[in-house]
Design a protein that fits this description.
TIM Barrel, two-stranded antiparallel sheet, alpha/beta, about 40% helix, 2 domains, about 280 residues
């Protein structure tokens, strides 16, 4: 067993033994690069990525190594637990991946979404030892960056909606629950995604206190993840920005800056440790 696979198996086993009902696969790699590296037609240039050919991937590259390791060792997990297990597969969404590109057009969400939908389809498994219970799209940058492509009524905005729908339909059609993980809910595009089951955000997000949330959940047939605890890295970044800013910052400016910092963290330009050290 290779070192990478062993680390994944040990970490996932720890999660199961700790009693987590549906643990995510262990994530030790950069959340953007791990998916962009699976695609052909993408090249890393300086501080970002560029498309050098139509986005595609070879079938053998469509399996996420973390998922493959868990599936390969599913019988071992079953024997240790004495029953079958369930896993949550996390996929970095098209908006967050697109934020890594140096040049974007209105169709970039469509191109990335098509590739991601095929990746999702290839990584769902269900056998007597274990199965994928949830597919979660991670969009930590959505709602934080003021992106002109997301102007209301724009074609690019509708393309993102369609991309989310396409990706999540690949899971829902296999009786797998779908989830969208975001850090801010100020942009409410997610309410329009029919195959979305669960909305997941940080514990202090206004969505938990807004009166219209319950009505929207009922009318769109969705659930809101009831976060009980939080490791709020956004708040650590916020505290750092306020403490180091030479002038008072508006809430909008802070949120946009947080989004840019997350982008820089993903690209390796900023070390996240500095925000821990500032507390």
């Amino acid at each position: 067993m290779e070192y990478f696979e062993r680390r994944i198996i040990e970490s996932f086993s720890d999660k199961l033994e700790a009693g987590i009902a549906v643990p995510s696969f262990p994530q030790f790699r950069d959340m953007s690069n791990m998916f962009l590296s699976m695609m052909d037609g993408v090249e890393k240039v300086g501080g970002g990525y560029v498309e050098i050919a139509p986005l595609s991937f070879q079938r053998e590259k469509s399996i996420v190594p973390e998922v493959a390791a868990i599936r390969k060792n599913s019988q071992d997990f079953y024997e240790k637990l004495g029953h079958s297990f369930e896993v949550r597969v996390c996929v970095t969404g098209p908006f967050t991946l697109a934020s890594q590109f140096l040049y974007k057009d209105k169709n970039i969400f469509t191109r990335i979404g098509t590739a991601l939908s095929q990746i999702v389809e290839s990584n769902i498994f269900n056998n007597k030892h274990g199965s994928v219970r949830v597919v979660a799209l991670d969009e930590p940058v959505f709602g934080l960056i003021d992106d002109p492509l997301m102007d209301r009524g724009s074609e690019a905005r509708d393309n993102l909606r369609k991309a989310w729908k396409l990706i999540l339909e690949k899971a829902s059609s296999r009786n797998v629950q779908t989830c969208l993980h975001i850090h801010r809910t100020r942009d409410e595009l997610f309410w329009e995604i029919e195959p979305l089951d669960i909305i997941e955000t940080h514990i202090k997000d206004p969505i938990y206190e807004t009166k219209r949330t319950k009505k929207l959940l009922e009318s769109t047939d969705k659930f809101l993840n009831a976060s009980m605890t939080a490791t709020d890295f956004d708040q650590l970044i916020r505290d750092y920005l306020i403490a180091t800013s030479q002038q008072e910052m508006s809430e909008t400016a802070i949120n946009e800056k947080i989004g840019m910092i997350w982008k820089d963290i993903n690209e390796g330009k900023v070390k996240p440790e500095i925000f821990l050290e500032s507390t």
